């Protein structure tokens, strides 16, 4: 559940940044590149923050 909340928050952040870039007339190609990069960072960060610790 914590991973889903983290990912949802990151999606909202990405959408806000993409909308801001659109309003600044950034070409759609670069907005798509930014969204893909941020989505990758968000998934990697979410997995790292929410993974279970090894009980050793």
3D structure, described in words:
The protein is mostly helical and 56 residues long. The protein has one domain (7-50). It is 80% helix and 0% strand. The protein has helices spanning 2-23, 28-50. Helix 1 (2-23) packs antiparallel against helix 2 (28-50). The relative contact order is 0.19. The model has no long low-confidence stretch (mean pLDDT 90).
In short:
With 56 residues, the chain is mainly alpha-helical.
What topology does this entry show?
Elements: H1 2-23, H2 28-50
Helix pairs in contact: 1-2
- Overall geometric form: elongated
The percent of residues in helical segments reads over 70%
Main sheet, how many strands, which sense, barrel? Answer: none
Q: Distance between termini?
A: 24 Å
Number of strands: 0
- Please report which band the strand proportion falls in: under 5%, 5-15%, 15-25%, 25-35%, 35-45% or over 45%: under 5%
What is the H/E string?
Answer: HH
Structural class: mainly alpha
> What gyration radius follows from the Cα positions, in whole Å?
14 Å
Which regions are unreliable across 5 or more consecutive residues at pLDDT < 50?
Answer: none
Task: Provide the domain count.
Answer: 1
Report the mean per-residue pLDDT as an integer.
90
Please work out how many helical segments DSSP would assign.
2
Annotation keywords:
single chain; 56 residues; mainly alpha; 2 helices
């Amino acid at each position: 559940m914590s991973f889903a909340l983290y990912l949802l928050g990151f999606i909202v952040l990405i959408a806000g940044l993409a909308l801001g870039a659109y309003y600044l007339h950034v070409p759609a190609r670069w907005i798509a590149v930014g969204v893909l990069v941020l989505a990758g960072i968000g998934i990697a960060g979410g997995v790292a923050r929410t993974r279970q610790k090894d009980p050793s």
